[in-house]
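Hi everyone, sorry if this is the wrong subforum. Our group has a chain we'd like a structural model of before ordering constructs, and none of us has done structure prediction before. Sequence below.
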Amino acid sequence: MPAGPKVVVSPFQCNQPCDYKKLFPTPEGVKISGRSTLIIQGRGNITIRNLDLDGALVINADKDKFDFCVDGLVVKNKGWVEVKCKKDAEEWVKMRGYTMEKLETCEYDAGGAKGDVDSTVAKGKSGIEIGDGEATDCGCNIM
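Answer:
Right subforum, don't worry. Here is the predicted structure as C-alpha cells:
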C-alpha cells in the first residue's frame, strides 16, 4: 500500500488535532505530493498559508523562538527516498524494512535558508516570512 507524504510536526506546534487549523489556516493553499517529506520542528510559531511541496522541506523555528509564515513557497527537489535495508542492518531497521536516503532537502531556520538560496526571507522583529525566490544548491526551485 502506498505510504503517501511523510509529515512530522513537533508537539510544540500541534499536540492536538485542532492545532492543525492554526498551523495550516488556509488548507486549500497547501499542496504536498505523495512522495514528499515535511518536517516542522521547534518552539516558535509556524503558519503555512500557501505551499506547494514536491520533495523535502524542513522548517526549524527553535532558535530565538522566531515566528515563521510560509506564503507562496514552491519547493521541488529530489527529496528523501526509502531504501530497502541491508541484511546486516540493526534489528530496529530490519523491523521497519527500510532507511531514508536524504537526496535533497530545502531547510529554513531563523538564519533563513540553508544552501545558496535567493529567496524572499524577510526578518522582522519577531518573525520570518518565506516567499518567492530560487534555491540552487539544495536542489529546490522556490517560486
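For your construct planning: The domain at 6-134 is CATH 2.160.10.30 (UDP N-Acetylglucosamine Acyltransferase; domain 1). The CA atoms of residues 51 and 115 lie 19 Å apart.
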